[in-house]
Design goal:
alpha/beta, Rossmann fold, 8-stranded mixed sheet, 10 helices, 8 strands
């Protein structure tokens, strides 16, 4: 398979400052479906021997210039070969149509990142881990359940997108609610087919009502302000295609997560509306090499970029232990 030629931005257009402690360059690689993915590689200034490596993605609707790039850069400062990638159909990565998600293809994206890392001469192929943020936390667990090359997995402020879409927030949808949602999605598919385009959800609103849920207000402070806005982020702009929800409605992501044998660290904020996703997913994991860390006082988006609350010392120690750094 040949890689698609992507239009990659050469300027530093991240929402975080460039670190003087690491080297940075862009790369592309193919996933199993022939989609060309774009990524940023961050490495320590001085590389001695073959390094442990980490692939990072998320949040759901974000791009590598946001949280995942920040995580990758900081892990490179701490001695890891780190890769932050745009999932298929998003950001600078290839794939049509744009801004649509798939539980299968986006899980595959993590394994494609492992493929890439396994070919890099600076990387020790026996010491590869992944980090999934928000919705890509669920994808990361799903990838860890199939890909035994992933020796250690960290999820941060994890969303189980299948559960959220098919059951609603806090499991508020019953069978009748799901039927109504499926009917709406089916009607949208018909409309999209008739118009020859995919209608978008609209992203995070530009203006948030006073009575909006706190988590929506939090999303606004990240995706719609200088703090985290990015021109290629779906959440910052027109949002996902509405029919992105289609596959998630009846394809549970975490069916085989209890069979993950390699190490998992799940991190979530004490005050996050989404905490129940990590608590329930962690309860299904097995083995002494699994850990849930609840960060006191942290909201969902605090773990996107709040360096005072993201427990990077813990993340580093976890990977150092299970990737034998």
């Amino acid at each position: 398979m040949e890689k698609e030629k992507l239009n990659l931005t050469e300027e530093w257009d991240k929402v975080f400052p460039e670190s003087p402690l690491v080297n940075h360059h862009k790369v592309t690689f193919l996933n199993r479906y022939g989609i060309t993915l774009a990524a940023d590689v961050y490495t320590p200034k001085k590389i001695i021997g073959r390094l442990p490596a980490i692939a990072v993605a998320g949040p759901f609707g974000a791009v590598k210039e946001q949280s995942s790039g920040l995580y990758a850069q900081i892990m490179a400062e701490r001695g890891f070969y780190a890769l932050a990638f745009d999932p298929s159909f998003t950001g600078e990565s290839g794939g049509l149509p744009r801004d649509i998600a798939s539980p299968d293809i986006n899980t595959e994206d993590f394994s494609a990142a492992v493929d890439f890392l396994a070919t890099e001469p600076e990387v020790d192929t026996e010491r590869i881990g992944i980090i999934g943020i928000c919705g890509w936390g669920g994808m990361a667990l799903n990838a860890a359940a199939i890909d035994t090359r992933i020796k250690a997995t960290v999820t941060s402020t994890m969303y189980d997108m299948s559960r959220q879409i098919s059951h609603g927030y806090f499991d508020s949808l019953d069978e009748n609610g799901r039927y109504a949602a499926r009917k709406t999605l089916a009607e949208q598919r018909t409309s999209d087919a008739q118009h020859g385009t995919l209608k978008r959800m609209g992203g995070v609103p530009d203006v948030i009502p006073e009575d909006a849920p706190q988590f929506l207000k939090d999303y606004h402070t990240y995706y719609k302000t200088k703090r985290g806005y990015h021109k290629r982020s779906a959440n910052s702009n027109q949002g996902w295609a509405i029919t992105s929800a289609w596959s998630f409605m009846n394809m549970p992501l975490l069916s085989y997560s209890p069979e993950i044998r390699n190490a998992v660290l799940m991190i979530h904020g004490e005050k996050a509306h989404s905490l129940y996703f990590s608590k329930d997913a962690f309860a299904r994991l097995k083995g002494a090499n699994k850990e849930l860390l609840i960060v006191p006082g942290a909201s969902h988006i605090d773990l996107y970029d709040n360096l005072k609350l993201i427990p990077f010392d813990k993340i580093e120690a976890f990977f150092a232990k299970y990737l034998n750094k």
